[in-house]
Specification:
The protein has 194 residues and is mostly helical. It has helices at residues 17-32, 52-58, 92-109, 114-132, 138-157, 167-176; strands at 66-68, 71-77, 84-90. Strands 1-2-3 form a three-stranded antiparallel β-sheet. α3 (92-109) packs parallel to α5 (138-157). The longest helix is centred in the last third of the chain and has 20 residues, at 138-157. The radius of gyration is 22 Å and the shape is elongated. The model has no long low-confidence stretch (mean pLDDT 88).
């Protein structure tokens, strides 16, 4: 059917590579019966898990990563340095895309009264932190918050006389009218694993 797109993304994990390859082949056949197909550029079988880092190192490579639901998933270890744990960080493409969207909104919204603008910025940051604030991604959401601050400073500074708002004044403004603090909202593993 021309004009229809299906975007049901999913990740399937197998212990053995032959099982994963067989699943991929069978999935293609099954979807074909309904006139659907797997997008080849977005479909792959990759090694991931507790042996992936070691095996990739033997080949002189880095363990593979994959993006899913806006997060890059990668192989890591628990906080104590022992044992495998899957970790996540905001996907680079999503990070730059979200900043671009914020910048475009800010360009249109900078004529708003500062109080109204500030409330919307707070809501946007709360939403971003709520979605991307998962275990291991504190650096990612802090970085996003810092970039938003830089954009806010830049655009608020353009409102008045040239360079009327110094960075110091902006920081004082942030102290008086704080924006939401980036923090982990979703703990994927109990307190001991963070």
């Amino acid at each position: 059917m021309p004009g229809f797109r299906y975007a049901d993304d999913f990740v399937v994990c197998f212990q053995r590579k032959p099982d994963a390859e067989r699943f991929r082949e069978e999935l293609g056949k099954r979807l074909d019966k309904f006139g659907l197909e797997v997008e080849p550029t977005k479909t792959k079988v990759m090694e991931f898990g507790r042996f992936a880092v070691r095996n990739a190192g033997k080949r002189g490579e880095r363990a593979g990563t994959f993006d899913f639901l806006g997060l890059t998933h990668y192989c890591g270890t628990r906080k104590d340095g022992k044992g495998f744990r899957m970790k996540r960080v905001t996907a680079r493409k999503k990070f730059t895309g979200k900043l671009k969207i914020f910048k475009e909104w800010l360009e249109k919204a900078r004529i708003m009264k500062t109080k109204e603008l500030w409330e919307i910025v707070k809501a946007k940051l709360r939403g971003h932190y709520a979605y991307y604030g998962v275990t291991d991604n504190l650096t990612g959401i802090k970085r996003f918050g810092m970039e938003v601050n830089k954009l806010l400073f830049k655009w608020l500074n353009r409102r008045g006389k040239r360079a009327c708002l110094t960075w110091q004044k902006f920081c004082e403004m942030l102290k008086r009218f704080p924006l939401p603090e980036p923090r982990i909202r979703v703990k994927m593993f109990g307190n001991s694993a963070n």
